[in-house]
Amino acid sequence: FEQARNAFYGGEYVEALQLTDQALAQAPNDAALNEFRSLVLFSLGHYRESAAAIHAVLAAGPGWDWTT
């Protein structure tokens, strides 16, 4: 996940998505990973897929706050 975040911060969104998907293969129910995946998808312009991902996260509980 840390590698995915570093890739994201560096503007490497495709790599960030690949790394996030790898992390999700290990922990598919991790809310933070799924929320981050939604952010990466949004950054790639995949708005519908991003919305679907974040909807599932928010249906299960509150999402990130500003500090996160």
Describe it for me?
By secondary structure, the protein is an all-alpha fold. 72% of the residues lie in helices and 0% in strands. The protein contains four helices and no strands. The model has no long low-confidence stretch (mean pLDDT 90).
Keywords:
4 helices; 68 residues; mainly alpha
Brief rundown of the structure:
The chain contains four helices and no strands. The chain has helices spanning 2-9, 13-26, 31-43, 47-60. The two termini are 15 Å apart.
Q: N-to-C terminal Cα separation, in Å?
A: 15 Å
Helix fraction?
Answer: over 70%
Instruction: State which percent range the strand residues make up.
Output: under 5%
Quaternary: single chain
| pLDDT < 50 stretches | none
Which of globular, elongated, flat, extended, rod-shaped describes the shape?
Answer: globular
Mean residue pLDDT: 90
Give the helices and strands, then pairings.
Elements: H1 2-9, H2 13-26, H3 31-43, H4 47-60
Helix pairs in contact: 1-2, 2-3, 3-4
